[in-house]
Amino acid sequence: MSRAWVKSASGSTPPPRVQRSSRLKCGSATGFSSVMYASTPAAPACSCVFLRGLVEPVERAQWEMLDAPAGERQDPAGADVVALMLEILRTGRIRGHFAGLPLLDPAGGAAYVMLKQDRLEEILAGRAAATGVRIQQGQAVTDVAQDASSVTATLVGGQVVRGAYLVGCDGGRSVVRKRAGFAFDGTPPTMTGRTAVAELADPSLVTSSLRGPGGLVNLSLVPGEIATIEFDGGPEDRDAPVTAAELQESLRRVTGLDVVVERLETGIRYSDNARHVETYRMGRVLLAGDAAHVHSPIGGQGLNLGLQDAFNLGWRLGLVARGLAPESLLDGYTAERHPVAARVLRNARAQVALMRPGAQVDALREVLGEVIGLPEAWRHFAGMMDGTAIDYAPGAAQPLAGRFVPDLRLAGAAGVAELMRDGHGLLIGLAKPGEGGGAMPGGGAGGLEEVLAGYRDRVRPAWAEGGSGLGGASALLVRPDGYAAWAGEPGEAAGALATWFGPPARTAA
Q1: Could you tell me where the beta strands, DSSP code E, fall in 377-474?
Q2: d(Cα 142, Cα 447) in Å, to the nearest integer?
Q3: Percent of the chain having pLDDT more than 70?
Q4: For the residues 464-493, what does the mean pLDDT come to?
Q5: Rounded mean pLDDT, 428-449
Q6: CA distance 377 to 355
Q7: Burial class of residue 37, CB neighbours in 10 A (0-12, 13-18, 19+)
Q8: CA distances in angstroms from 381 to 16, 96, 136, 384, 385, listed in the order given
Q9: What is the mean pLDDT of residues 385-392?
Q10: What mean pLDDT comes out for the span 20-37?
């Protein structure tokens, strides 16, 4: 499957090239994708799906998937790890896991969404179509070329698409990455994962287990979907069709039981191959998602990582391609996202090590489980796994700078997320008591209201209620991806706006 996003100089978005695969996709070791869009009061409360108004359709899709098969599961629910996961999910206690060690929210305030990746893609495609994006299927990219002023992508049928920029979102085997010449170094695989839709002769024989004698087995939340992981040095041939006999032998090795697979509908293989590009941009070609980084699916971090890549790049590229900001704004994409992915690759390797069978690893898991039970350690691991600990401006004088903006109380009915649904930034000032949505503090000469006059096409004004919530600053500039670009005093706002959103537009005298 090959996907690419070509951004034209005019600012319009020619169609991403999408080729649909089978219904089975692996977004994590369980075959699911997960999204953390809200969390405990101490952590950020917005995320990309929240900011674009997609929480309701995503949640609805999750519970349609989980509620329908509740009475159809093949394994004894009380003994199954997945059944426990369902209960925790419903009560808002889950913040993810680290190598299968649960990260439970003691306050029960987490909102963790789990659904099939192809269903999430349908929701995102619907959102794209609603904004005017055309998606063409079956148009794989076969070659990429660029010059000083443009980039071209050759499609499988010979058609050539030209634009000012091209973004390769075409997965771990990215043609865009290879043809553009990005280095992709890393570590080779040490495990083989298999996920399949299959029927067992005796479904009650197999239950989900992270610590089987030969690896792990997981019965999915969707009836009939089974996953195994063996630590055997990686698959010899990832592309050969998975057979019923192969899955049966894998189940027998992992469980130590005489499992019989009667029928296999479809299956895939995966590994813990971990690789990462050195830069996310070479001239007019950029990479996002698995095209830029691959790692073990254990921990389910890949989806959030790719979505945040897209959000970090999208607003930058939109401003640059429309001529509203200088090309140097794109440099911040690699600077911010490369360290985040490097951290994910590091903890993904650590999780694979913690999943290996053996008494020594069992002991290590017990010790680490005790550590994770400590409040500070739990917060560290939870923030690392769900991405809420990301800080794009470490050491900044203002605590909110570089961090995901909390869902601040704003004057009027709208909140932060509602005001950002169409991709604008926000300039938030402190409302004086009784003024509500009146003029921004510092209005007049040099004030925020005057400074924002040349940015109304890119940034909206807002007012924080109660004179608090800005971390001690008097103004806060929020990027379209929900992160605080700057926090400070009104007199500094003009420079911050120019840095993050380009020069102001000319306004009528």
Answers
A1: 425-430, 459-464
A2: 52
A3: 82
A4: 87
A5: 58
A6: 20
A7: buried
A8: 35, 9, 40, 5, 6
A9: 91
A10: 38
pLDDT at 466 over 70: no
Q: Which helix (H) or strand (E) holds 237?
A: none
Tell me the CA end-to-end span of the chain in Å, nearest whole number.
53
Residue 39: both structure tokens together: 């969390």
Rounded-to-integer distance, Cα 438 and Cα 479, Å: 22
Which residues sit opposite 461 in a β-bridge? 427
- Report the C-alpha gap between 215 and 226 in whole angstroms: 14
The values of phi and psi at residue 136, to 5°, are: -105, 130
Find the Cα–Cα–Cα–Cα dihedral 395, 397, 399, 401, rounded to 10°. Answer: -80
- Extract the tokens encoding 237: 């041939």
Two structure tokens written together for 256: 């130590």
| Per-residue model confidence as pLDDT tens digits over 176-213 | 999 999 999 999 999 999 999 999 999 989 988 988 88
The sign of the torsion formed by the CA atoms of 351, 353, 355, 359 equals negative
DSSP lists the bridge partners of residue 168 as: 4, 287
Return all residues near 81 (Cβ < 8 A) that are at least 6 apart. 207, 208, 209, 210, 218
CA 213 to each of CA 176, 230, 425: distance values in angstroms, whole numbers, following the listed order: 41, 10, 52
Residue listed under structure tokens 């560290």: 380
Q: CB under 8 Å to 325, separation ≥6 — which residues? A: 316, 319, 501, 502
**320-373 per-position pLDDT tens digit:** 999 999 999 999 999 999 999 999 999 999 999 999 999 999 999 999 999 999
Q: Is residue 431 pLDDT above 90, yes or no?
A: no
pLDDT at 443: 46
- What is d(CA 452, CA 444) in angstroms, rounded to the nearest whole number? 11
